[in-house]
Every structure is written in C-alpha cells, then in structure tokens.
Design brief:
About 80% of the residues lie in helices and about 0% in strands. It is mostly helical and about 260 residues long. It is flat. It starts with 12 loop residues before the first helix and ends with a helix.
C-alpha cells in the first residue's frame, strides 16, 4: 500500500552519489595530464555557453512576458497574434529553429536593415554580417519565449480573480494591480517552471555548436578530433554541463523552498 510521501524531506542519497562521481572526475582532472589539457581547452567555451544562456534567457523572458500579457489582453487581435506565435514556435524543434534563424531570418534582417538605411545616406553603417553567435542567441530566445509565455500566462491566471476585482474597486489601475497584487502571487507559481526552462536552456545551448560557435560542445568536438581521445574529452564535456546544471538546480530548489515558506 502506498502511503503519503514527503519528497522534500527525503535524505539526498542521490546527491551524495552524484557528488562522489563529480569528485572522482575532478580528481582525474587534477592527476591526469590529458584531462588537465582537455579541460584547459574546454574552459574557453564556458564563457560562450554562459553568455549565450544568460542573454538568450533574458531576451526570452522579456518576450515571454509580453506574449503572456498579449494572450490575456481584452483585444481579440492581440490574443490571436500571441497564440499564433506561441503555437508555431512551440511546434518547431529547437535545432530546426536554430538553422532557420541563422540562415533565413538573420540574412533577411540584414537585408531589411540595409534597405531602410540606404535612402538615408547611411552607407557607412551598411552591414553585411550578422555574427553566428548572435544568430544562435536570437534563435534560442525565440524558441524559449513561446514556452516561457505559457509559464507566465499560467502563473498570472492562477491569481484569484476576486483579489483583482477588489483591487480594481479600490481604484488601482492595471499597472498597480499587476505590480502589487498579481505579480507577487504569480511569481510563486512561475518560479519553478521558469527555473526548469533556464536549466534546459543551459543544455540546449550546446546546439549552437552546429553553427560552429565555440561553446563547450564545439570545442569538445574539435579537441576529440585532434587527439582521438573521445572518452576523456567527452567525460570532461559531460562533467562541465553536469556541474552547471546541478548547481543551478540546487540553487533554484533552495530559492523555491524559501519562497514557499515566506509568509503571504
């Protein structure tokens, strides 16, 4: 018979096992010259991975919040535009979206920008390039904005409508209602899935390697192709991603628990 469980109170045996595995890998790094050489090379890609994730997630969150507000708007046109965008983007795999943005959308944006600037005599500002790093970041932002929009929408709709009506009766305008009533309560619902999307973007940032961006995965492929030591190289690649994602997951879980225990 299955009784009530308390997952949050379980002793983290899995964390001890995982910590031991990571500690063993770090021991190999410090005692094995090959591992040390590989991690020295791959560490250069950590900056790119972190930058792509942070900038892409910030852009996706801003766009997602805007889409959520549009989907809850009183305007039928705004609601339909938001729903069209969300359904289309969510239906396209991230890697396909990455290639489409890099080789279709980005060149079109460059051509449109040049077309707009040319009549203004801005020849000096004419550009023919859109760096692949920014193409990849834009693609990740577009892809995740649709998922984050649904997170924001669900969080906003979870707030009791009676509280919003009471705030409206007290004379608060829409921005004041959102700032003081809706958002402080919605963030408790929004934070866990939003954190999951952030961790997922860290992992999906590895897809930018298909464009030749020098992130962790791309440098790992180049290193393995040069030294033919695939086992050691991809062990380090996995270790770096695992360290990033586990650290983020534990930090977000702690933040979630603090917000859950915070008085209303």
């Amino acid at each position: 018979m299955i009784g009530p469980s308390h997952p949050d109170k379980d002793f983290p045996y899995w964390l001890i096992l995982l910590g031991g595995l990571i500690a063993w890998m770090f021991y190999q790094v410090w005692t094995n010259d090959l591992y040390t050489q590989v991690i020295g090379t791959l560490s250069k890609g950590v900056r790119i991975t972190v930058m792509v994730t942070l900038i892409g997630f910030a852009m996706a969150s801003a766009a997602g919040l805007l889409l959520a507000v549009m989907s809850l708007s009183r305007s039928l046109i705004l609601r339909q535009i938001a729903r069209f965008y969300i359904e289309v983007v969510r239906g396209i795999p991230i890697i396909v979206l990455l290639l489409y943005v890099a080789f279709v959308v980005a060149p079109a944006l460059v051509a449109a920008l040049n077309w707009l600037l040319e009549p203004l005599g801005a020849a000096l500002w004419r550009t023919r390039d859109f760096p692949l790093l920014w193409r990849a970041t834009l693609a990740l932002a577009i892809g995740y904005s649709a998922f984050i929009a649904e997170v924001f929408r669900a969080g906003i709709q979870s707030v009791d409508a009676g509280q919003i009506e009471a705030a409206e009766a007290l004379g608060l305008n829409r921005w004041q209602r959102f700032r003081h009533i809706v958002f402080p309560q919605a963030i408790r619902t929004i934070l866990p899935p939003l954190g999951n999307d952030f961790v997922a973007m860290v992992k999906d940032s590895s897809l930018v390697s298909v464009l030749g961006v020098s992130d962790i995965t791309q440098l790992g492929k180049i290193t393995a192709a040069g030294n033919f030591r695939y086992f050691e190289t991809y062990n380090i690649v996995a270790l770096i991603y695992l360290t990033l994602t586990v650290t983020l997951s534990l930090g977000l879980r702690r933040l979630e628990q603090r917000m859950r225990n915070k008085p209303q």
